Amino acid sequence: MPLSTVLTDHHLWLLILGIHNVSSWMIRVTMLAVVPMRHTPGAAMAWLVVIFFWPWPCLLLYLAMGSNLLPQRRLKRHQRLLRELSTVRIRCHQTLCALSPELPRSLHRISSLAETLGHMAIVGGNDGKLISKASDLSSLLVGDIDESKETVDLLYYIFSDDNIGGPVIEALTRASKRGVQCRLMIDSVGSGSLIKEGRVEWLRAQGVSVAEALPASLFRRHAARFDLRNHRKIAIVDGSVAYTGSHNMIDPRYGHRDLVWRDMSIRLKGPVVRQLQAVFLEDWFVETGEEPDLKQLTAPVDQWGDISVQTVPSGPNYRTENYQRLIVSAMHDATRRVIITTPYLVPDESLLQAMEVAALRGVRVQLIVPSRSDQFLVGHAARSYYQELMDMGIEIYQFSDGLLHAKTMTVDGELAFFGSSNFDIRSFALNFEINLIFYGKEEATAMVEAQERFLAKSIRLTSSRWKDRPLGVRTLESATRLFSPLL
């Protein structure tokens, strides 16, 4: 090869290297000014660390996942609906609040805060049935759909055409052929397999309206970031029966042979169904643009029981992290005992401090988590907090009978939190979630009993046993904790 050619190639590589180095430093400096203005200090620090070491790859990653801003079209529809809902909300509030129960002073603060954050009041006159098995959930829902006369509205993060979701799909088609208005909303990423398999188009051909929540794309003019998801699980039949909780509409093994997800959902009748229906109608409108029938939200509603409950929607379209604020506030109010079940625990600083303060005040704080995790990075990040939590006096129990996926918290046996939200930064800040707060000793008893059953199948973690884990595992946990604000 001629010497001139070698020199030319050498100069070309030097030029490419020089451009790469200069552009890498330009990325670092630019993001140093941009990132802290768009994120919390913890999240900003994590992004800046990864961008410093890998500027170009992490710049592309940030462009795809770094902003929790929703598409402008979706935001405009949401703002328009809020304006239209202003008068409807007043009438709905008057209808439902006629059934509002009297609360003891110890619970009134949480109820008021929840109403301020989620715009929904506590309502009495409800009946509920807890469901632990996915097969039972599917069977009950199919039975209600088969008896439906007017509407069936479903919203699920993961929906699969298998032994759990399949019967529901068949029931939807039967209802649609009877003239029932059937609407199914599925998360674009969580239910990606149902979309790819062509079942969505088949359902539409059967008369079922299907919408994808938060379509994801790298070039996000009209789409959302890949990890900003609609994680809600809601089913409403004829505006009179509703389901919500942590179950996705899929076989509880999620494709695993040796691991079963343990969830909890609830079947509800009463005024609270109106609140869950309002959440669905909002999601449906902002995704499809179809005008919702808001009159059904103010229609008279029957009382079915004595349960007092409040719906708390949360997501990036709210000004604050609704559920996180309520969890932290309730933790500060606790006087005797707090029990938490969650598959993923990645606490932010305020939640960590609330747990610590509760323990220092003598509150017995019991945390039940799975012994195995299906999420590699999140699982290791969560475990990095265990020693710190145990040093605070918090009891940690590792559930051994499958993967604990129920998301619950009870406080002093008279307040219960229940729904789709994990106790991690992602659920608090990024995902659209739906949760319920149950008030009163009778209402919380069933939840505490379910938590006690989880405790009976768990092994308490001790500091001595935890410190015996290999050095490599501890190092991995520490490294993943650094990126916990991004997980």
Automatic annotation (TrEMBL):
<keyword id="KW-0812">Transmembrane</keyword>
<feature type="transmembrane region" description="Helical">
    <location>
        <begin position="12"/>
        <end position="34"/>
    </location>
</feature>
<feature type="domain" description="PLD phosphodiesterase">
    <location>
        <begin position="400"/>
        <end position="427"/>
    </location>
</feature>
<keyword id="KW-0677">Repeat</keyword>
<feature type="transmembrane region" description="Helical">
    <location>
        <begin position="46"/>
        <end position="70"/>
    </location>
</feature>
<protein>
    <recommendedName>
        <fullName>Cardiolipin synthase</fullName>
        <ecNumber>2.7.8.-</ecNumber>
    </recommendedName>
</protein>
<keyword id="KW-1003">Cell membrane</keyword>
<dbReference type="InterPro" id="IPR001736">
    <property type="entry name" value="PLipase_D/transphosphatidylase"/>
</dbReference>
<dbReference type="InterPro" id="IPR022924">
    <property type="entry name" value="Cardiolipin_synthase"/>
</dbReference>
<feature type="domain" description="PLD phosphodiesterase">
    <location>
        <begin position="226"/>
        <end position="253"/>
    </location>
</feature>
<dbReference type="Pfam" id="PF13091">
    <property type="entry name" value="PLDc_2"/>
</dbReference>
<keyword id="KW-0808">Transferase</keyword>
<dbReference type="InterPro" id="IPR025202">
    <property type="entry name" value="PLD-like_dom"/>
</dbReference>
<keyword id="KW-0472">Membrane</keyword>
<keyword id="KW-1133">Transmembrane helix</keyword>
